Amino acid sequence: MIKSTPFKKDYLYFRTCCSTLNLSQAAEIHGMGQSAMSKIILQLEHEHKAKLFERTSRGLKLTAAGSHLKKSIEHLEHEWIKSQSQNTDVAAWQQRLTVGFHPVIARSVLPLLAPALYQQNIEFDLTTVFGTSKEITQKVNRLEIDLGFVINPIRNPNLIPKKIRSEHVGIWKKKKNHVLLMYNPDMYLAPKILTKLSHQYKLIPVHNYEVIAASVAADTCYGILPNPIAEAYNFEKIGSELIHFDLCMIVHESKFQISERKDLIQFMTETLKDL
C-alpha cells in the first residue's frame, strides 16, 4: 500500500475545504461534524498566525495566506510522492495493494480481480478490507487504502471515480407470499424506499444482506436485496426495481502521480470492463 504523505491530517482537511469552499461539505466528506471541521481550520489559522479563509454568505473564500499555504502543501506533497516513486522498487509497487469493498460489490468484483492480479504475478500481495461505501470512501480519502469499490460515491474533489456497472435493488421472494419484508437499514436511499412500502408490509430491519438472503431462501419472508445477491439464489423479483445505483472504483488523485500505480489501476479497470 502507498504510504500516506507525511503531513498531519489537518492539512488534508484544509485542502478539502479549499476544493469545496464549504465547511459542511468538507466535514461530510471526512465523516465529521461541521463544528469539528471549523475548529480544525481555526487551529491552523492560529498556528500560521494568519486568516486562511474569509467566511461569506456563499461559503468560504481563500485569503492570500490561505492560497499560499495551499500551494505550499501541494508542492511539498508532489515532491514527496515523486521521491517515493524514484526511491521505491517498481516491482514492489506492483506487488502490494490494499483494496476496500462494499460487500455487495465484492461478490461480483473479487472473484474476477484476485485471479487476474495473481496471474500477472504469483507473488502479488492483495489485502482486502470491507465496510460501508462511506467507510471505504473515507479510508481512500485518508490514503489508508489504495483504492475502493463503492456504491454511488459521495462527490469528493480528492477522489477519482470510475464506473464499473449499474445495478438495482428490488423486492425478492422464493415461492410463497408473505407480509414480512426484511431490509438493510444501511441500504442506499433506505428512508425513501421504506416510506413507500411501510403501508404494504411489516418491515424487519437486518444489517446484513446475506442474512436477509438466507431468510428469503427459507421462504419465511420477502427481502429487499441488490440484484447480484438475489440472482445468485435464483429468487423471483416482485414488481419493478426500487432504485438503481452505480458500482464504482474510487482512487485518490495522488495515485495518478505515480506511473506504476496508474498502470496497475488501468489493468484493473480493463479486467472489470466486461463485468
What would your notes on this structure say?
The protein has helices spanning 9-20, 23-29, 34-48, 64-87, 90-95, 103-120, 133-141, 190-197, 209-217, 227-232, 259-271; strands at 53-56, 59-62, 96-101, 125-130, 147-151, 159-173, 180-183, 202-205, 222-226, 236-252. It is of the alpha/beta class. The protein has 3 domains: 9-87, Arc Repressor Mutant, subunit A; 90-165 and 247-271, D-Maltodextrin-Binding Protein, domain 2; 166-245, 3-Layer(aba) Sandwich (D-Maltodextrin-Binding Protein, domain 2), CATH 3.40.190.10. The strands form 2 sheets. Strands 4-3-5-10-6-9-7-8 form an 8-stranded mixed β-sheet, sandwiched between helices. Strands 1-2 form a two-stranded antiparallel ribbon. Strand 3 (96-101), helix 6 (103-120) and strand 4 form a beta-alpha-beta unit. The radius of gyration is 22 Å and the shape is flat.
Tally of individual domains? 3
**Highest CATH level, the class of the largest domain:** Alpha Beta
Order of helices and strands: HHHEEHHEHEHEEEHEHEHEH
The major pleated sheet works out as: 8 strands, mixed
Q: Report, as a whole number of angstroms, the end-to-end distance.
A: 25 Å
Stretches where pLDDT falls below 50 for ≥5 residues?
A: 87-93
| CATH topological fold name of the largest domain | D-Maltodextrin-Binding Protein, domain 2
What would CATH call the homologous superfamily of the largest domain?
Answer: Periplasmic binding protein-like II
Task: Give the count of helical stretches.
Answer: 11
